[in-house]
Amino acid sequence: MDSVHARPIPSLINFRSLDSSRSSSSSKNRFVSFGSGPRNGYSPDVMEASNGYKRKIVTGSAGYVLEDVPHLSDYIPDLPTYPNPLQDNPAYSVVKQYFVNVDDTVAQQIVVHKDSPRGIHFRRAGPRQRVYFEPDDVLACIVTCGGLCPGLNTVIREIVCGLYHMYGVKKVLGIDGGYRGFYARNTITLTPKVVNDIHKRGGTIIGTSRGGHDTSKIVDSIQDRGINQVYIIGGDGTQRGASVIFEEIRRRGLKVAVAGIPKTIDNDIPVIDRSFGFDTAVEEAQRAINAAHVEAGSVENGIGVVKLMGRYSGFIAMYATLASRDVDCCLIPESPFYLDGPGGLFEYIEKRLRENGHFVLVIAEGAGQDLLAESIHSMDKQDASGNKLLQDVGLWISQKIKDHFSSQSKMTTNLKYIDPTYMIRAVPSNASDNVYCTLLAQSAVHGAMAGYTGFTVGPVNGRHSYIPFYRVIERQNNVVITDRMWARLLSSTNQPSFLSAKDVVEDKREEEPPTQNLDEEEDSDDTAVKKEVSHM
Ligand SMILES: Nc1ncnc2c1ncn2[C@@H]1O[C@H](COP(=O)(O)OP(=O)(O)O)[C@@H](O)[C@H]1O
Ligand SMILES: O=P(O)(O)OC[C@H]1O[C@](O)(COP(=O)(O)O)[C@@H](O)[C@@H]1O
Ligand SMILES: [Mg+2]
């Protein structure tokens, strides 16, 4: 007997709202149960949210909730299964408990209290004993979309090698130049030989783009080419695109698994611990900060300004600052600041220059955009994907600082502005990101081979998990400035918080608190200034 089905099945207690802590009055959280049935060892309730997303929810005693991912067998009956070829792979056959148990799930919340619900869980990633594709029948494709990020080539390499070496899949295509490559360009044949050295290069060998997402043309192309596994590597925009591709595939009843691999140098994707390339970006940023520090320290009243990426989330700036110790002030989009007057930036710079003789400022590109908009009257412009095009805050703040010290102060300063943003994201991934990319790619391959679809893969509290698309696209991950990590930064730089008590607003949200990724101590206070961008 197939041991997957021999595993005990978690008890399905009752239909309940997805997250009992959420407000039921919110239209976003209204669910309609329209069916259920035993699948893959679980008996999920399938609920449709008012925004159209179908959610597979399994509940258990003690407040356990599994937010499961879709499976091909949800909408295609009587699919045959096959033994996992890994069972005969000499490398893996000796590994004890190599296969993931069907009821293994990963808790999103690991800090819990005696009487609190156990919260949301995700399906654990990894190989299953039975797969839903015969290796010879698989035609897989890989696409990369959005901005560059260190590690893209490593993920591509490891998907190709994982499919070839673990599952014996020999047909893998690269889609040329992002989503529009599905219907506008030729494909690139990917083999272990083609991808052998690519992890040593930055960028993506299959190209990327913004914009150009046309769901029906993309799914037509998938159908016409006979592709049955689609690996989509990209950020929040890309995962949104992947979600609608998956919905269309399901609507057409196609046996096509859609797997998302989250890519964002900004680390702005929620739920997962961190995104690949982030570690490399923080490391690379050190070089720029170091240069700014050397320049500033070598002249009288030297000021070094470094702009780092981070459109809406200041994680790179925050971590690069914490790592460096040479930074006097870090400005991020989540933390409003002001220039003039008591407690303002200029006053602080002046104080530091008098004390130390030099000053280093790190600023995330999305910081202070409201101040820029006030002083530079500009039209709201967007890139091809609909992302807001930002003004260059680094140039702007450098000019403001120069103007201030030349006109209103008797101090002569010497400012150097460094913009390493594209240099940082174009480098190859470092060792730890390479390992991380390998795990992401292999988890995605295991999930698709096992018939899961409509999922993004990523680590949740250190365990790789399959997360439904709607979870990673419903909001952005931001630095929570009332959490301990930002306090650590403030106490390391000694910069002003730019907040007065009146800015700290009561946040009695009943919704699940945002996971401030990377910070293991994410138990944010009830009283919080939170800035979240909702997309639903
Ligand atoms: N809401 C959406 N629906 C469908 N496709 C989208 C959506 N938002 C973005 N995309 C597509 O995803 C791709 C990448 O998006 P973009 O925002 O540029 O980068 P990232 O995925 O890194 O955030 C683009 O091709 C864009 O057209
Ligand atoms: O100039 P481009 O290519 O549009 O990229 C700029 C943007 O790309 C990023 O590095 C990453 O953004 P995405 O994750 O949306 O690709 C942002 O930090 C930055 O604003
Ligand atoms: Mg994005």
TrEMBL record:
It comes from Carpinus fangiana. Keywords: Allosteric enzyme, ATP-binding, Cytoplasm, Glycolysis, Kinase, Magnesium, Metal-binding, Nucleotide-binding, Transferase. GO terms for cellular component: cytoplasm. Residues 503-512, 527-536 have a biased composition (Basic and acidic residues). This is ATP-dependent 6-phosphofructokinase. Homotetramer. InterPro entries: ATP_PFK, PFKA, Phosphofructokinase_dom, PKF_sf, PyroP-dep_PFK_TP0108. Pathway: Carbohydrate degradation; glycolysis; D-glyceraldehyde 3-phosphate and glycerone phosphate from D-glucose: step 3/4. Residues 141-446 form the Phosphofructokinase domain. It comes from the Eukaryota. The gene is PFK. ATP binds at residues 147, 210-211, 235-238. Its cofactor is Mg(2+).
